[in-house]
Amino acid sequence: MSTALNSKQEANERHQARKLERYILQYKANQALSKDVKQQMGIVEDQDPTLFEELSLKRKWSHVSKDPSKGLKDEGMNQNSYWSMLNHLPAKGVERIVTERILNYDKDTCDLILQKILMQKQQADLKKEFM
In this structure, which of 8, 26, 41, 80 has its CB flanked by the most CB atoms within 10 Å? Predict the structure, then answer.
């Protein structure tokens, strides 16, 4: 009996969380909401703007994670919010965006940067020896 109560409570919590996300999205889009809900969303936004922003972005990525290329084409998204939204993606969603090819490019670039730093260091050491 207690497992049924727990699952019902968990379902209710999930429902409330999704309801809050929906209200936040509607509030940000200036859609028709009751005065009470608008006031509550305004209070939530004023009290913790970071949490409010995270919750509004969370729902967007749950849709985009199915096709990450859509997230890259979103013109309304600036570069900073794009990277912060990656934090909310599940691991599979990140793997779809950050492919093996991208990781290899990053590795090669880091190797080149390291080589240049070492070369500069060697040149500086040679200059010290001859001076």
Answer: 41
Buried b (16+ CB within 10 A) or exposed e, 14-44: eeeeeeebebbbebeeeeeeeeeeeeebeeb
Give the rounded distance of the alpha carbon of 89 from its chain centre.
6
Evaluate if pTM is beyond 0.85.
no
Q: Are residues 89 and 110 in the same domain?
A: no
CA distances from 22 to 30, 33, 117 (A): 12, 11, 50
Residues 8 and 50 in one domain: yes
Q: Cβ contacts of residue 95 below 8 Å, gap of 6+?
A: none
Q: Do 35 and 93 reside in the same domain of the chain?
A: yes
Compute how many other C-beta atoms are within 10 angstroms of the C-beta atom of residue 61: 18
Categorise residue 30: left if φ over 0, alpha if ψ from -120 to 50, beta otherwise. Answer: left
Q: Is 29 helix (H, G, I), strand (E, B) or coil?
A: coil
The reply to whether 114 and 81 lie within a common domain is no
d(CA 37, CA 24): 9
